[in-house]
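ok trying this again, last paste got cut off
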Amino acid sequence: MQSELNKKGLIEAALFMSPNPLGIDKLAKIAEMDLAGTLAIVNELMEEYKSRPGIEIVRIEGGKYKMQVKDQFLPYVKDLASELEMSKAVLRTLALIAFKQPIKQSDVVKIRGNKAYDHIKELQDKGFIKTRKFRNTLLLETTRKFDEYFGPIERKNLPGQKRLMEYGDSGDIEQDKVGQ
């Protein structure tokens, strides 16, 4: 059984980590509490955050809660968040590249469809993947930025490492938009 202090911290952490607003029912489930106790903690946190300069917890339409930057600071920091927002389709393409790296762009397109070209461009623009010329296509690999954001991958255990030996390690990695 968690202490009240730990439950408060857990609710605060859930609000911080969730990209979407959370309802009291979801927060109660996470903290293993009843609805009334969870609501009391959320209200307490909202009061505490009123005195903080940059962050607040707000109740939005539908009775859900979220942690957000206060309005007066949003123009200065909004670009930091939008850099990492990606659709599920783009994330799936990134997961494929991460798991199979190095992988030929043509193989990614065969698996993910023609929209993969847009996904690859977005991922490259955001610095999560880098490319290297290989015959008539490109080899795709994740970057240091990917490792910093999602955590490092034990690359020696990936299926794509056999292909790296087949492709050879020659070819220049395109440095524009690599994001390392």
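PB: full thing came through this time. Confidence is low (pLDDT under 50) at residues 169-180.
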